[in-house]
Amino acid sequence: MYETLSHFAQTWGLALFVAMFAVALVYALWPTNKTKFREAAYLPLEDKEPGDE
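Predicted structure:
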């Protein structure tokens, strides 16, 4: 029983993590997210403080 559960967890756990990595990679490289990520990258370099208008 242990061997069966161990094999199942190893096989489908790997498949799950590969799928999650693929989804994260597609999200990060999707062209419409480029401006959002660029704005977030330059956010620490802005002079204004949070809450300043």
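Summary: The two ends are 63 Å apart (CA to CA).
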